[in-house]
Amino acid sequence: MKISLFSIARKNIKRKFFRSVAIGLSVAIVAATLFVVTTIMGSVETSLKKGTARLGADIMVVPAEAEAEARTALLAGEPGTFYMAKSLVDAVRKVEGVRDVSSQIYLKTAQYKCCDVGDMLLIGFDPENDFTIIPWLTERLNRPLNHDEAIMGRGLTAFAIGNRMKFYGSEFEIVGMLEETGMKFIDNSVFFPYQAIQQMAEDSKKKNDVQTVELLEDHVSTVLVQVKPEITPERVAIFIEYNVPGVKAIVSEQVISSVRRQLFVLLRSILSITLILWVMALLLIGVVFSMIVNERQREIGLLRAMGAKKGNVFRLILTEASVISLGGGIAGLVCGGAFLYFFKSFIRSALKIPYLWPSTPDFILLILICLFLSFITGTGAALFPALRSMTMEPYEAIRRGE
Amino acid sequence: MIEVKELSKSYKVGSETVNAVDNVSLTIDKGEFVAIVGHSGSGKTTLLSLMGGLTKPVSGTVTIDGVNLWSISDNDLSVFRNRKMNFIYQFSSLIPTLNSLENVMLPTAFGKEITNASEYASELLELMGLKDKKFSYPSQLSGGQQRRVAIARAFINRPEIILADEPTGDLDEETEAEVMTLFHRMNSEQKITFICVTHSTDIAKQCRKTYRMSQGAIKEA
Fold first, then answer.
1. A-chain residues within 8 Å CB-CB of B89?
2. What is the pTM of this model?
3. What is the rounded distance in angstroms from the CA atom of residue B174 to the CA atom of residue B167?
4. What are the C-alpha distances in Å from B212 to residues A179, A206, A318, B61, B201?
5. Predicted ipTM of the assembly
């Protein structure tokens, strides 16, 4: 058996268990709040970046009156159907700064006499010009899709590659799944070539027991635009809205920044509260450790008389503070992590945001930052009391503590 | 050898300056057994603390085996205390969170390597009649038992000097006699220097040399 500074600190923590828990709890609240808020911020950021990268478009052109619906579809994944004349595709293509265009058509599924899954988005893409699905297809499948094949987002967990899904009476085999983006618009959608979706609409009319699809001839839902590198998407969006009447050009980057803005106002308030909590935790720990040092003056004097150096006493106080605060930090991270895990859907629907768990390195970094902050909180707050404990003369400390 | 030369220590009490130790000089040879007696407030405990390097004098020097305690750094003084000496106090000096065995072993946490410290601590507790109280906490011990644990702790670092302030204060006559016998045994076998501050004339009589303190001044009795 050996006795060490750490074992003395550990026993001191246990001595005033509830006080230690109270200090740990204050650090845990700060760590949990910080962890949850930064993870949500990071998740939204990751999701938006991945989602827009998957979309592959700098600008999404939609009917002017459907702007709100399109944004909701894009961000919250709520299926929306809006249409505009196909001729606008060429009009957009001719606008200055446009490098490439691709159109998509949206169709909403219904539950009754229709589809295996209701209230989801079926997206028909143009295989000739598409830059959302085709690059992925070329890389993964290395062949075009057949008329009875579809690609699915990662959100529909009940289905897997090789499964068959029925939409409006037609069956499609799922031959690929896109990687998760956190954007329901992509994750919860099924993608088909244009011709397949048109064929499906035609076939639905011939079947008696199936709800029919009314696809407007020569219409599309959106025109996706890639811009030339020498011009900004914002500028091209202005040109599109000026040259093509009746459309709204939504810049992907602006969608990200608008969400970021909206969300950050909310999260910044929470972060401000976290900052206040942090300052309060610092003060609380500082006051408690000042009390601890006062309470233990005699003990500190006795330890010094036994040969403890000033540094030993300093380390003893800081070890107690750092163990409590690190413990609090870990507890906070566990609680915060559990909250994020179990309330993922709630957060997503309450904030109406795309949400994707951050990548493992980002996540580890975030955990380390929160733990470091917890550590700093305890040790920083106990620093002054620990320094004060060092300055006491052993005999004076023993006498004052009597 | 302990050499105290013209040692003074004063305190401010309100606007008044109290000379707790006033120009004290004495020499204690290695292996001596010394008693310091005097009334309460005569400066005995302050002198003991000055000799142990626990407080800094206003003037004068304390030299132990050629080392002037106040000429070395605070860290070196701590190491010196840990290696050379130990204290027995007149009050309960146990750490409440540690059991008897851990309390006895406490000085080993700060430097001096003691081989088989745990076994030696158990042996010392046994010597003090506390074999079955090794894992008891101070709150589970009587005042006398706590005092005996503190006495056991004083020997753990195999010190050359023991500075004891009323070492048998809380003990019954029988235990007091046993403790004094142990002190004398340690003194003769291991040549440990004992400096005991006491009110007890019985204890003073058992010491080879007695100093009397009055109003901070000292003289051999």
1. 302, 398
2. 0.73
3. 14
4. 90, 121, 44, 20, 11
5. 0.93
